[in-house]
Design a protein that fits this description.
This protein has 316 residues and is α/β, with parallel strands linked by helices. The protein has 11 helices and 12 strands. The protein binds iron/sulfur cluster.
């Protein structure tokens, strides 16, 4: 007699997982290995996902923290999060062959910051201290030209040199709803502040949060496949909690799933951060099927068709 298993309905958020910027960054490393041979050096995790990093290592990538770990005769790729200007400058000084995998949507924020600076404005960057994207964006301008704020409370007290000459920019992977509040606080305190028409939060972050918002109220628990240092993944956990699914957590892979945590759960939401490959979602669903009688409902809130071009050096 076969043991009857508990039913589990999986609400699968869509869009989820890889965005166009992550896809492009991974392709840059793969194509660089094909073109220049092994090893190709990569400064920092190309995207924040251990599985992706290990897969690229197996193909011939070597991940390093700084350029001084890269030999003069090997190519180096800069990660999708963007780098301070000093990094390509140093690579140029050493005549290194470098490929920039900075997401074009992050580069757009860099150009905006430069434009404001050239117009004499101090830039207030909304973001998380220490995140590589924030370090990269702040590093587009001379030291001291960008002021970082992390939340609305900081906006109330942050000292600025000239209230009438300010602009703001945002990290691309923030919570859409939290950022609305921070921008509102900025506009209240500094009514003349310049900023983007919409925030700089990217389409992929916005869409993944939108899909989680759609399923969260219908889930007893929700799992985000992603890495703890992935900003957009962490925001998805928070968005689920803020939208009716208080039992939400980040899991890197099925192997680390705490199955007791699912006791009594009938409807499980699953999504993945922009740097998490679909194979890890499939792995988690397969692990659920081993334990439950699974039914899958995919909830798609929007279609995505964005593709970013590869650097010319890799397609010619
Ligand atoms: S999350 Fe957004 S900004 Fe970051 S790589 Fe993806 S598309 Fe680009």
């Amino acid at each position: 007699m076969t043991e009857s298993r508990q039913p589990l309905t999986i609400l699968l958020a869509s869009p989820r997982g890889f965005c166009a910027g992550v896809d492009r960054a991974i392709q840059i490393v793969e194509r660089a290995i094909e073109r220049y041979g092994r090893p190709v050096y990569v400064r920092h995790e190309i995207v924040h996902n251990k599985y992706v990093v290990q897969t690229l290592e197996a193909k011939g990538a070597i991940f390093v923290d700084e350029l001084d770990e890269v030999p003069d005769d090997r190519p180096v790729v800069f990660s999708a999060h963007g780098v301070p200007k000093s990094v390509p400058a140093e690579a140029g000084r050493r005549n290194l062959l470098y490929l920039d995998a900075t997401c074009p949507l992050v580069s757009k924020v860099h150009r905006e910051a430069e434009r404001h600076h050239a117009s004499g404005r101090t830039v207030i960057l909304i973001g998380h201290a220490g995140h590589p994207e924030v370090i990269g964006t702040m590093g587009q301008l001379p030291p001291g030209s960008v002021i970082l704020v992390e939340d609305a409370a900081q906006v109330e007290t942050v000292p600025v040199p000239d209230h009438a000459n300010l602009a703001y920019a945002t990290q691309t992977t923030l919570s859409v709803d939290d950022t609305v509040g921070i921008v509102a606080a900025l506009r209240r305190r500094f009514p003349e502040i310049h900023g983007p028409k919409l925030e700089d939060i990217c389409y992929a972050t916005t869409n993944r949060q939108g899909a989680v918002k759609a399923i969260a109220p219908h889930c007893d628990a929700l799992v985000v496949i992603g890495a703890p240092n992935s900003s957009n993944s962490m925001r998805l956990v928070e968005v689920a909690a803020a939208n009716g699914c208080h039992k939400s957590r980040l899991v890197q892979r099925a192997a680390e799933m705490d199955w007791q945590w699912l006791d009594g759960i009938r409807r499980l939401g699953i999504t993945a951060g922009a740097s998490a490959p679909e194979t890890l979602v499939e792995e988690l669903i397969a692990a659920c099927r081993d334990r439950y009688d699974v039914t899958i409902e995919e909830v798609r809130t929007t279609e995505e068709s964005i593709i970013f071009k590869l650097p010319r050096a890799l397609v010619a």
